[in-house]
From TrEMBL:
Gene Ontology CC: plasma membrane
Region: Disordered, residue numbers: 597-617
One Pfam family of this chain: LRR_1
PANTHER family: RECEPTOR-LIKE PROTEIN 12 ISOFORM X1, RECEPTOR-LIKE PROTEIN 20
Species for this entry: Brassica napus (Rape)
Protein name: BnaC04g43070D protein
Homology family: Belongs to the RLP family.
Highest taxon in the source lineage: Eukaryota
Keyword Translocase assigned: no
Signal sequence interval, chain numbering: 1-27
Keywords: Cell membrane, Glycoprotein, Leucine-rich repeat, Membrane, Receptor, Repeat, Signal, Transmembrane, Transmembrane helix
Lipid bilayer topology: Single-pass type I membrane protein
Phylogenetic lineage: Eukaryota, Viridiplantae, Streptophyta, Embryophyta, Tracheophyta
Length: 649
């Protein structure tokens, strides 16, 4: 075998289904296991075992972890030369490696039904005479996340049994200026159930014939340049499409009438206008409605309580939230931030026991703090910022806040008042050091079955948070973030030491309030803390020395308080800008220019005192001489003495 460069790679699995037995119904799935490379091989003829062993031996097993129960994650940078000899191969998955080169030779693999080459570095053009288009038994083809750069060949229509096709995230360009239209050759593939053309710069309109494919269940054209729909909307209504993903295109005008079978509809980051059609309330199977970053106007339909995931963020919606959330509501995410909503939070939200994410930020909602939401056993994110909320945020019993699953509480830019009781931060989810991680990793994933298995679509929650001095959008907040933002309110009193119980807290912003007292020493216990802002309060005392040892603390701002003493010296603190500590008359030490050892205002040393004493004795002698002189001389000496004494003092 020819020598070639090799490296460790991520290989999720390489599953080879060999139809090598006498009866087509008796076959075996082969996995590479370094202890016994032929475990699981059943009923194969000797020449077929030889071919397979030759193929296996082209993988270098010298650096394998022999305790690994599966394929050794070391594979050649290109497809082995003996690959084409596996003529009985049915399923081939080489996804998520670092394989390079042009499209591999598959001319002899004419029994393939599944081919997955996604997440590699294959490049070049797919020419019409490519052996790929001779795989007439192919059901599933995934070429996503490679670097193919030609137009999409018409010969894809030869794969007339194809049920699932993904060409996502390639360089398909058509004369390097984007594909002008949806690839029309797909209209001949009547068995098609799944099409993914996302991230390919395709322009034009979605063709009317697309909705006539009798088995089409999923269409993903996210992040292209489509701008509309051809033909009558009735074709779309009567289609079999269940998952329709149109996000990040140039669609404009009114929202189309959705298919009767629709379960997931995502059309965020487009230019849709008008009201959200009430017809969506007739789509009984709809669970995901994502219309964020559009220009919708009017009110929010009352049926949003029937869905599981609702994202209407950054539109121009008006009125109040519908108070129609029933006890059986399956709602998990409700994001209506950045609209023009008014009124109060609907009290029926307390019926949504599955609710985990609630964001109403940047509206005109006028209400008191919703203590009643602590009845929701799963609520993890609550953002109320930039509204007209008012009143106390302390519970009536002056105990813990009581939202035990809460990870993010964002209430900035309101008119909340009062102080925080000592036990305010007890029993929060963020108090667990394991509260961030993968336990909710599939929280908003929609699974779609295809001929090969399951495909998962993730719908991510976002919030805008003041973090490290900047307001930025944070994603995946339910699995990666614990944060508190109480900034720009009217809160006062001392900051409770119980804040130190929030072991997983990453960002804390208490700025622009009227907090008094000392900075809690317990902040040093927040080992995961990355961003701390307590600026523009009335805090006094010194900065706790323990903050200098919080290793992840990359941003701290305590400016414009009444702090004093030396700034703790640690890499994370001394690397901050001066502005983070300015406005505290008593603070000294780096990064400020004021030294804690400046002696300009202290009493002069003993040597200077002795000099003053000698000068005073000399002045007395001068006075004695002046007594024996005439009045004019006396006056002259007195003036001289006064001027001299003022100078030395």
């Amino acid at each position: 075998m020819a020598t070639m460069s090799e490296w460790l790679v991520r290989l999720h699995f390489l599953s080879l289904l060999l139809l090598c037995c006498v009866s087509p119904s008796s076959c075996a799935t082969i996995k590479f296991i370094t202890r016994d490379p032929l475990v699981g091989l059943v009923g194969c003829h000797p020449h077929q075992i030889k071919v397979f062993t030759q193929f296996k031996n082209e993988f270098d097993a010298r650096r394998c972890n022999h305790n690994y129960n599966g394929i050794c994650p070391t594979v050649a940078s290109s497809i082995p030369s003996s690959f084409s000899n596996l003529s009985m191969l049915s399923k081939l998955d080489l996804s998520q490696n670092d394989l390079t080169g042009s499209f591999p030779l598959v001319s002899n693999l004419n029994k393939l039904t599944v081919l997955d080459l996604s997440h590699n570095h294959f490049s070049g053009a797919l020419y019409p005479n490519n052996s790929l288009f001779e795989l007439h038994h192919l059901l599933y083809l995934n070429l996503a996340f490679n670097n193919f750069n030609s137009s999409i060949p018409y010969e894809f229509s030869n794969l007339n049994q194809l049920k699932a096709l993904s060409l996502s995230s390639n360089g398909f360009s058509g004369q390097h200026c984007g594909i002008k239209e949806f690839p029309n050759m797909l209209k001949k593939l009547h068995s098609m159930q799944f099409i993914d053309l996302s991230n390919n710069r395709i322009s034009g309109k979605l063709p009317e014939w697309l909705w006539s494919l009798p088995q089409l269940g999923t269409l993903n054209v996210v992040n292209n340049s489509f701008n509309g729909f051809e033909g009558s909307s009735e074709a779309l209504v009567n289609s079999s499409v269940r998952i329709l993903l149109l996000e990040s295109n140039n669609f404009e005008g009114a929202l189309p009438n959705l298919p009767l079978s629709i379960t997931v509809f995502s059309a965020g980051t487009n230019n849709f206008t008008g009201e959200i059609p009430l017809l969506i309330c007739n789509r009984s199977s709809l669970t995901v409605l994502d219309l964020n970053y559009n220009n919708f106007t009017g009110s929010i339909p009352q049926c949003v309580s029937n869905f599981t995931f609702v994202n209407l963020r950054k539109n121009n919606l008006e009125g109040s939230l519908p108070d129609m959330f029933c006890v059986s509501a399956s709602l998990r995410t409700l994001d209506v931030g950045y609209n023009q909503l008014t009124g109060k939070l609907p009290r029926s939200l307390r019926n949504c026991s599955s609710l985990k994410f609630l964001s109403v930020d940047n509206n005109n909602i006028k209400d008191m703090f919703p203590f009643w939401l602590k009845a929701l056993p799963n609520l993890q994110v609550l953002t109320l910022s930039s509204n007209k909320f008012y009143g106390s945020i302390s519970p009536p019993n002056q105990g813990p806040l009581g939202f035990q699953e809460l990870r993010i509480l964002e209430i900035s830019d309101n008119k909340f008042t009062g102080s925080l009781p000592p036990r305010y931060f007890e029993n929060w989810k963020a108090s667990s050091s394991s509260s961030t991680g993968k336990e909710d990793g599939s929280l908003y994933m929609v699974y779609e079955k295809n001929p090969y298995g399951l495909i998962a679509y993730t719908f991510t929650d976002h919030i805008d948070l003041q973090y490290k001095g900047l307001r930025m959008e944070q994603a995946n907040v339910l699995t990666s973030y614990c944060a508190i933002d109480f900034s720009r309110n009217l809160l006062e009193g001392q900051i409770p030491e119980s804040i130190g119980l929030l072991k997983s807290l990453i960002a804390l912003n208490l700025s622009s309030n009227a907090f008094t007292g000392h900075i809690p020493e317990s902040l040093a216990d927040l080992k995961a803390l990355e961003s701390l802002d307590m600026s523009s309060n009335k805090l006094s005392g010194s900065i706790p020395n323990g903050l200098g040892s919080v290793s992840f603390l990359s941003y701290i701002n305590v400016s414009h308080n009444q702090l004093k003493g030396e700034i703790p010296q640690g890499t994370q603190i001394t690397g901050q800008p001066k502005s983070s500590f300015e406005g505290n008359a008593g603070l000294c030490g780096l990064p400020l220019e004021e030294s804690c050892f400046d002696t300009s205002d202290e009493p002069q040393p003993q040597k200077e005192e002795e000099q003053d004493q000698e000068e005073e004795e000399e002045a007395l002698n001068l006075k004695a001489v002046a007594i024996g002189c005439g009045p004019g001389v006396l006056l002259g000496w007195a003036i001289a003495h006064k001027s001299y004494h003022l100078f030395v003092r």
